[in-house]
Design a protein that fits this description.
Blueprint lengths: L1 H16 L2 H9 L4 H22 L7 H12 L9 E2 L2 E2 L4 H13 L6 H26 L4 H9 L2 H10 L3 H16 L3 H14 L7 H38 L1 H8 L19 H4 L2 H70 L4 H16 L2 H16 L11 H16 L16 H5 L6 H16 L5 H32 L1
Helix pairs in contact: 3-6, 3-7, 4-5, 5-10, 6-9, 9-10, 10-11, 11-12, 11-14, 11-17, 14-17, 14-20, 17-20, 19-20
Amino acid sequence: MGNRSKMHQYSKNFRNMLTWSYLKGLVFNPAQLPLVAVLIIIAEVLINMLVVERVPYTEIDWKAYMQECEGFLNGTLDYSKLRGDTGPLVYPAGFVYIYSLFYFITNQGENIRLAQYIFIAIYNLQLILVLRIYIKSRKVPPYVLILTILTSYRIHSIYVLRLFNDPIAVLFLYSSLNLFLDGHWYLGSIFYSLGVSIKMNILLYAPALLFFYLVNLGLRGTIKHLFVCGLIQLLLGLPFLFGNPTAYLKGSFDIGRVFNHTWTVNYRFLDIYIFENKCFHLSLLAIHIVLLMIFLPMCIKYFQSYCRLKYVQNQVQPQIDAKNTEYAKKIKAKKDAKGKVKKIEEKEEITKDQQDFLNAFESILKKSSTKGNKVAKKTEEIKEQTNYSINFDILSQLFILPMFVVNFIGVVCARSLHYQFYSWYFHSLPYLLWSNNFSVIVRFLILALIEMCWNTYPSTNFTSALLHICHIVILVGVYKKMRTELKVASKLE
């Protein structure tokens, strides 16, 4: 009987999946993203494998990475002496350990194809974490993610044709964001610090994370988590700090590093002298600070709302779970009782007189109000399907938007953007664009223009200027939307 009921339910669910409303929801409804996310992951595995097998690998930094790690594996702990064909080692200790592991796995870096398949795994693991955030937030329609993720030439190139370290740092970042959303604070801090240990661009999230700590954990809790983050950096860098502390700190966390104008994507229109001028760098830093001062007060209010609503969730969720458990027990008991009655009926023999009485009683029921019976039956079905639930996952919007915005501000004010830096914010662009009041056409136009700018090699004066325009438009749009939402929230309070 139980198996037959389950089969009936499966059949009913399958029929629902074939309805037009359900199929339409797979395209437009953010609540139906989970199934689409699975399809995106499958498609990405196939696309990346096809890229690896059909598109020639381009050597840029992989060989230099291997040379730098080879020096470490040979016993050199002085950072100033760890070099590759592209120059000295400029990344923190986490990078050295991870790429040393790749050095062993790929036969001293010679097995490029194996390395590419490792990066396919890295990319899809990160994509799972990214899509999990989008599933929780229910902000962006599925078709947007399908078009954005599957069609980006530059992102696929960065991950599986170039083997840069940026994707690994971003993988740890998205791991930490998911852990924070799940309330695993210490694990989130550990993974965030691990991301910083691979490439320091992850520090762009630090201003938002600091206030997220303060709002949710208070000063004492914030100090604890900052200590955890610092301890991770200390432990990872310890061998190099013993070897030559000055060389390690200067090499791995050099904020004054001068970038090569040859590779810039966002400042091609500037003369090299201006591009490398310290006054220009300080001006960008000042703009960065001003933008943070404008946005952080709004971000703090978002974090405060997130904190309050999470508190409500912690109070209400146990009651909801208890109600659902109680309701499930009642339904089970009701079904068990029906089953017992049916078994008794099957075991007992019914006489001819009893059968005639039942047939007569059944005909009387059929002559009664058919409509009333149908309504009663429908009501009963609805009651059986009713379940207590509140979608608290949507609260993640109050956490994710400030984090993405603060990172985006860092990208907008970067002294130079190289092609691999696209991975720093690519997967957050749909979220940022759907966090403003632009029309769908304008949103897709901006996405297409940004992709075009990143796909133009070498960059031109036009594409560099256009990239800045797109970034500024997004930032202004998000600011207006956040300000409007906070005004509405303040009136409701």
